[in-house]
Structures are given as structure tokens and as C-alpha cells.
Amino acid sequence: MSFIITTDTSCDEMKNTLDDLDIPWIPLTFTIKDETFDDNFSSDTEYQEFYAKLKSGAMPITSQITPLSHEDFFERVANEKKADAIIHLSLSSGLSDTANSAKLGAKNYMKRNKGVKIYCVDTLAATQTHNILLYEAAKMRDKGLSAKKAYEELESLKVRVQGWFMVDSLFHLKRGGRVSGASAVIGTILNIKPILILDFEGKLQVVKKAKGIHKAINILIETIKEYRTDETNEFYVIQANAHNSAELLKECIKREYPKANVKIGWLGPIIGTHCGDGMLGLTFIGKDRKEIR
User: Fold this and answer.
1) 73 close to 181: Cβ distance less than 8 angstroms
2) Per mean pLDDT, which range of 29-43, 75-89, 131-145, 168-182 is the poorest?
3) Quick one: angle between helices 147-157 and 127-143, nearest 10?
4) Which of 51, 148, 167, 254 could cross-link with 241 by S-S, CB 3.0 to 4.6 Å?
5) With 0-12 CB in 10 A as exposed, 13-18 as middle and 19+ as buried, what is 226?
6) Tell me, what's the pLDDT at 187?
7) Which of 139, 158, 177 is the last residue of a domain?
8) SS3 of the chain: helix, strand, coil, percent, to 5
9) Position 291 in a domain
10) Are residues 25 and 144 in the same domain?
11) How far apart (Å, rounded) are the C-alpha atoms in residues 2 and 150?
């Protein structure tokens, strides 16, 4: 291979699948009642159990990966894979300082190991929005692109990865300070579903509100019409224990675009902690993201 791809686990791909794709990963962590867990899920059951804990009232806390942990990770990968070039894809700097920690860890490692070049991509993304970019990196690797060329293409591509999300419960947004307590109560009573996007800086922004799941899905479909290009044919539906809604969104996409390839993937514990059970999302590569001033 021309380079090694690495990632943190905010991509929300099954970790055994990452192993099969030969993509080493470093886990993010979450803490519930003073017990810390690695985000190392490889089965539907593990995701379901996490959301069962949320529904029962658990309030997880997430933490970023330190520069030293990244440095140790890069050293292990370089030694095990005998790599002289690594491209690392990390959780959005608009959501966490993990991307900056990765860059610092890579810089520290490269100071000690002049023969290894590490390119750190701040994906400006999370969950399946990160994952779709990871698969693009794998295509570039398998085509034999150089690490430098692949890095440049990923940097250009990442602002075209659309990420739109419908949040089922406003109370998790209240906890994160994105809506007030009164808005959370009133919105829940009125069945209001906030629509969030990953903006040009990789931050989550509330941009629309829908009353009920069907209107929310309509907004997501209209998003495709607005932001897709003629080359857009792959869509990732993101769900947080919202299987029926995810299947409905998939059906709607296939109805509009019969030749589309639609994959349904989980929202994992790192972002799920802040968005909550029932979240539904959509990601695809299209036109540039919104810039919100």
C-alpha cells in the first residue's frame, strides 16, 4: 500500500470492519457513573445497549484523546505496519480538540522519527459523515495514490461532505447548551424536531425545525435536491436506535434516486451522548457546505 490510513472511532464504523479494511483505530472514550468505556463497538447489540442506558437516564461524559495517546498510537502503527506514510482522519475540530491533539501527537512523533510522514486530516465531521470520507480515503489508498496526493484530495473533498441531522429529543440539546430549558419543554410537547447541520467549520448548528418525523424526513430529502451533484450516488443514513425511521428515509431516497446506493449506519456513543436516542441523519458528498456567520 502507498500509505496507511488510521482513524479515531468517531467514524462509527464497526471496529471489526475497520480491522478487515486494514485501518488501525484509536478509541474515543465515554464515562457513565465514574466507569469509563472505550468506543470499540463491533455489533448492533452494543449500540442498542448504549441507547438503552440513555433512555434509562444515564448521562455519559465524553473525553478527547490526548496528544501523548496519539503519539503512542502512531508509533505502534508505524512499527507494526512498517509504514513511512500515514493519513489520519480525526473527529471535527468544531466538536472536540481531538483533531488538534492528533496533529500535536503526530508532530512529536515525527520529531523523533524523521523517516515517517503523518498527514492529519481534520474531517470537520463525525459519525457516518466522517465514515464516508474514510471510505474515500480507502479508495485512494487502494488505487495507489501517494500519501501527499490523497491528503490534498481529502482536504478538498471534506467541505463537500454534507451532514444533516434530525434530533428526536430536545433535552440532550438543552444539556449541551444549544437550546434553553423552556424551549426543550415546549418543543417536546409540540413534537418539534430540530434539524442540525455540520457547518463549514465542522460545528453543529440548528438551521430548521420540523413538526414530526415525516416533515423532518421531507426536509432531509429536499437537502439532497439542493446539495447533490450529478456524481452524487452514495448516501449514508445515520440512526440512533431509530431503525424504522432510517428505513423510511432510505425508501424515500431510493424512490427519488432508484440507482442510489444507500447504507444505514449507527450514531455512536461519542456524538450520541449529545444528540440522544432517536436521532436520524443523512450524509453524502455533494456541493460545498453552508457557511453560517
Assistant:
1) no
2) 168-182
3) 150
4) 51
5) exposed
6) 42
7) 158
8) 45, 25, 30
9) no
10) yes
11) 10
pTM over 0.90, yes/no? yes
Same domain for 19 and 109, yes or no, is yes
Which CATH number do you get for residue 130? 3.40.50.10170
- Is 16 inside a domain boundary? yes
56 versus 152: the higher-pLDDT residue is 152
Residue 21 is given by DSSP the state T
Domain that holds residue 214: 160-285
Residue 292 lies in a domain: no
Alpha-carbon distance of 78 to 71, in angstroms, equals: 11
Tell me the β-bridge partners of 90.
122
Q: Check whether residue 20 and residue 148 sit in a common domain.
A: yes
Look up residue 218 and give its three cell numbers.
421531507
Stretch 20-48: mean pLDDT, rounded?
96
* Mean per-residue pLDDT of the chain: 90
